[in-house]
Amino acid sequence: MTPRSPGRTDPPDIAIGDEEFRRFTEFFYRRTGMIFGESKRYYVDRRLRDRMAATGAESFISYFGQLLTNTAEVEQLINAFTINETYFYREDHQFRCLTSALLGQIASRKRRSAPIRIWSMPCSTGEEAYSIAIWLLENWPSVDDWDIEIVGTDIDTRALQAAEEGVYAERALMRLSPYLIGKYFERLDGGRYRLAEDLRGSVRFTRANVMDQGETARHGEFDVIFCRNMLIYFDEKSRRQAADNLYDRLAPGGYICLGHTESMSRISPLFQVCRFDDAIVYQRPVGTSHGG
């Protein structure tokens, strides 16, 4: 086998057999709930070889051995496979629903001293979580009357670091008006923009795997969860497990917003369907209690 030089960027020419592909995709599924079938073979092989090159593994077996003992490499592997394509004000009809309907109902049930907690999961590189913050500042007249806590979590630690830095290319801002860009962003070189420091400080980013009940539980209860375009990557069993974990994290009466191609009705009977003028969302019934 030809030795690889440090800093090499091309993936090594290491064959990954059918049985090795199956072992790897089963391992990845158990860790993340994400499924990659034969149709994704090139995508998987390419990223797997990249990680082999980065770790110096000269065969699939030696690399797979690392995955079984090295949690840091598992984290790097997950980072390599996650998809972080998004932009500000994506599916903003749900943000309109948030301020026109959801927050009013939530506020009517809350003590004024209690925070309103909103969870962006997965938050990717931060566009959605920051979009919620900007939308509330611009569209909810009661925004200054409440302590609003926005938490962004993702399984990809590389994406979380980018979210905290808050620097974006023009494409990520394509749905924002020039007024909003001028108000909340500083223009940098190379067509990049940095989010204003006080807005970056309004969102807390941290890691969580939606398939891990312990990891999600430590973030407490939320009044609204935005979990959009993630469950489509899971199989039926994983979707149900993720839905159970999300249900546990919703406060009674809280709402969850999914992507426009996703339906909680096809995943779990735990949630009530709520049809508003701007969006269909799903609610944890008001009378339910945690543990019941």
Secondary structure layout plus pairing:
Elements: H1 18-32, H2 41-55, H3 60-69, H4 71-81, H5 93-109, E1 116-120, H6 127-139, E2 148-154, H7 157-165, E3 167-169, H8 178-184, E4 185-187, E5 192-195, H9 197-200, E6 203-207, H10 213-217, E7 222-226, H11 236-249, E8 250-257, E9 272-275, E10 280-283
Parallel strand pairs: 1-2, 1-7, 2-6, 7-8
Antiparallel strand pairs: 3-5, 4-5, 8-10, 9-10
Task: Tag the structure with descriptive keywords.
alpha/beta, 11 helices, disordered N terminus, 3-stranded antiparallel beta sheet, 292 residues
Short account of what is shown:
The protein is of the alpha/beta class. The protein has helices at 18-32, 41-55, 60-69, 71-81, 93-109, 127-139, 157-165, 178-184, 197-200, 213-217, 236-249, and strands at 116-120, 148-154, 167-169, 185-187, 192-195, 203-207, 222-226, 250-257, 272-275, 280-283.
